[in-house]
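Field reference: sequence -> structure
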Amino acid sequence: MRRPLGCLTGAGLLAALLTAAAITATALASSNRLFSPGKLSAQAGVDLGGVSAHAALEEDCAACHPAFWSASAMGDRCLGCHTEIAAEIGDPAKLHGEIASPENCRDCHTEHRGPTAHLTTVDQVDFRHDGVGFELTAHRDMAPSPLACRDCHAESLRAFDIQDCAECHFVLDPAAAGEHMLSFGPRCLECHDGLDSYGAAWDHAATSFPLLGAHAELVCTRCHLAMHSLAELQRTPQQCAECHAADDIHAGRLGFDCRSCHNPGTWQEATIDHQLTGFPLEASHAEADCLSCHVDRKWWGIPDTCFGCHAQQDHHEGRFGTDCAACHRPTTWADWSFDHNLAAFRLTGAHASVACLACHTSGSFRGTPTVCGACHADPAYHAGMFGANCGACHNTSAWTPASYNGPHGFPMNHGGAGGNCDRCHPGALTGYTCFGCHDQGEITDKHAERFASFSDCMACHPTGDKEEGDD
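Structure field:
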């Protein structure tokens, strides 16, 4: 027959029971200190129910550790005392708002590491820091080693001194940190979110004011000087005149929409729609260099009349006034036309086809005589009998036929002669002859009985009647 193993003998079982009883008694006598992994923290905090440090609970393990058969968890015991933490759970705006359940208190908070040990150890956990408004993405990758919580929260994880930003960044890059601090002040969290959103990788094109041309070469403070918050940065003026009013050589006379002429490259690269100025550029004016009119870059008060710019080129020396556009066009000076009807001497008849210089000799236009005799010398045929009043007989269509309506001692319609003066007055008006119509031989024969000779027919025939003068 086989004998039972030693531990299963009556003596063995009795020894086991006695050992268990001794251990239980010892544990009960020491308030379970037999199982404690170490001393509790003695650092005093807020008084909660008469307890300001965990060390006061060393004799009462059950205060934090429920029995294994209990329905509650250790986290429930934590929140039972730390009610302010229980109120934060589930609120994303609070520090503990990222905690999904009370069971993970031990992930960040530990005990039994001695009376002076910290109760919070979150350096080894992946705490979602963006839940409190500051992302740690860039800071976790900083050389020579990732940042630990205590690097920024030296006194308490609930407290943060903004001066810590400056101290750390002055070590990393003293020049850049100093310039940045002087330019934007010490309120780092007003703009920075831990993602370098406003650092070297900042893309200004993502805003409503992309940096183009010369703007892209400026340092930030040229536009954002003494701005200490994101709200102030976003209120930065975006209109040209708000920054460049002091550089406006137009002194506001052309309005404040600088972009209608200028581009962000340089002020000199300007284009202007001259139509908007009230003086449209046409023909040769459109090809002229701007500074030929805007001398010394004077953009306002420029004369807008021809004479205002071209007085030195006036060959008429002011004799036609200052309204050059009445005759000239903006193509060339030679491209002109003159409406002579606007002058005191209108061109009619044959005058309309005469070359200008035929009357305006030597290019002289003002003071040109308007009487016929000034251009048309009195012919010897008139023998000075009519003076300078050519218009009494002649018109502008042609010199002939002429129509004389003045006093005449002999009927002008005699024999149908009408206005044909030279029929009776050949050679000159000072003399006359009847033999232009009457046969001289016949008249001589007929009058031979009475006159040996005769030359003054009108002495006997003053009205042209053949019976006149008969005895």
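Note: Residues 10-29 form the longest helix (20 residues).
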